[in-house]
Amino acid sequence: MVTFKKTFLFIFLIFTVFHILSMFIFQPSIALILPEKVIPSLIQDAFKTQHLQKYLILFFTGHLIIICWGSLATYWMSSTILHFHCAVRPILALAGSFFLLFSLLMGINTILFPHSQVTVSKPTAWLFLLLSGGILTILTIFKIRHDIQTKKYRTLPALLLYGIFFAALSLPQFAYMPSFFFIPSETGNRTLDNEKPPHIILIGIDSLRPDFTTLLHNTEITPHVNAFLNNAIAFPETYTPIARTFPAWVSILTGKYPWDAGVDFNLTVPDPEALAKALPHDFKKAGYFTFFATDEKRFSNIDESFGFDAVAGPVMGAADFLLATFNDTALSNLFINGLFGRIFFPFSHTNRPAHITYDPATFVRHLNAKLPNNPRSPAFIAIHLCLPHYPFIWKNAPLITDTADKRVKEYTLSLQAADQQFGSIIEMLERKNLLENAWVILLSDHGEGLGEPLHQPYGKSINAPLRQGDIDWGHGTSVLSPRQYRVMLAFRRYGQNSYETGSRRQQAMLADILPTLMEDLKIDPKGVNLDGISLLPALKSHHIVKDRILFFETGLNPKDIHFNGGKIEKAEIYAGMSLYTINSQNGRLLLKSNVIEREKKYKEYGMIQNGHFLALLSPDQQGSRNWFYRQKGNAEFEIHESFATLPHEAIIMLHEVGKKRPNILTP
């Protein structure tokens, strides 16, 4: 026993050093935490919060257990080698064990996590896996056979110890079987009334462009989404108010423009009064169990304050930013997607921004565990899937070589994976009997610019360049891009479908979703003045509900951070960090108030009504702002340097929008 303790302690120390060095060598995040040996004030503030301190304890405990696991495996291999080869020196057996385990881990990590920083070439990975895996398998078989023949474990305690030992060594196998350990939650004692109100299920797919589906083009990229659309009522002319996730979902949940709730950007704090009037509260009062789940909380802080009984997904706050991507080691990656990862690494488990280890199937299993079977009350369920968001890669994403259309290929592949995830969720909802009587709404929070030229926003050329070298990258970066602001919106009624499916000509916005459902369910929003309107008449027929102006604007686009479709430089990352502060109470990252006021001055504003398009561009280097206008029909695009030169129709649009966004657009 003394020999075991000394040997295990020696292995443990070596393994700890190796594990820490691998994190420092392979993790680019280290450079961000220790720039020139000075920790940025933002990170200093984060370490002072109880939020981060709590998850740091889990982080270190989890890695300590992982190191113990590796040490135990190394000790077992070295002792087995010594048992069969007595002439081998202990130090050589130990070195051989380290090499076997290292080779096995590198091989597995490269194959299962191809985008990890800790990988080798794929042929080398398979060679490592076959050789080290074969040797370890042979050693294990002979070890077990020898112990059985010699009756080494004859007593029950010894046999249990033997079983625990091998169970510990096989712990990573549970990474892909977590659903066995989770029991679906219940919704309470409320019961359905005689009218049996339908379940309300909102499923958002981040960055989903309608032109990549059959809604606008005949494409087979998204077969599950297309199958849904074939039996749904769709609104092809739907726009998001701000092409960023948090403002878009604030608009969905409040039925208003997001700035009415004090949300002009991601990571801002909504007005408490607006939160108290968020529409999920009305569904709760009507007897609904309200539930929200997402695999991305880094920039979209949707929580219970919006009226949800429960919220699922990864940890929200500084732990997500600072710890989630730190788990990219050949050893810890094996554990993140399982029960162990859910307990000790909740900031990485089911977390889409931790893209190297994110497994879409793990998030579906997480949903399966959280959503009730045969709920006793009607359920209001909102799910947001962030898989097609930049950087468009995830655990199993194929490696794409650098080509001119690399971004389009990556986006298309991520969209296909999200489509599979969407199909799995629909199947899961059906198994839980949640689709027997339900409204299911498929939506996207924004689109995505994939490198198309901005000077052809609607497939037409304009009569003058807007800004030299403008390319349509990302989302929320330019109101001149319909690819960023045109979104998916489709309603499907399960169980009692009496509506004619197909597309509707009614222009819509995301704020219309819940007012439409509330009118159908006869839920009164208690006199709240909503910006969204009910689309129910358009659902029932092809009636145009309202001819109105749809207004949208850009998100946060700091001038010292340039996103050109490639990697952001370290200096730009530091500049981005300086924009935020840490909430000391809950550890959440927040945009500084002075930054909010400053960046509002650089926003672009756009509006559209029946083909008429008007936009106010961001200031140029001289501080001048140009107006961009297109008349109805096939008219040419125009640029106006002054409000006074705008056509009469444009001025009417401008004054109408000024009622919703005063002191910004009005001259």
Automatic annotation (TrEMBL):
Residue span, Sulfatase N-terminal domain: 198-467
TM stretches of this protein: 55-78, 90-113, 125-144, 156-176
Source organism, top-level taxon: Bacteria
Key words of the record: Membrane, Transmembrane, Transmembrane helix
SUPFAM superfamilies tied to this protein: Alkaline phosphatase-like (SSF53649)
Record's keyword annotation contains Transmembrane: yes
InterPro entries: Alkaline_phosphatase_core_sf, GAG_Ulvan_Degrading_Sulfatases, Sulfatase_N
UniProt protein name: Sulfatase-like hydrolase/transferase
Organism from which the protein derives: Desulfobotulus pelophilus
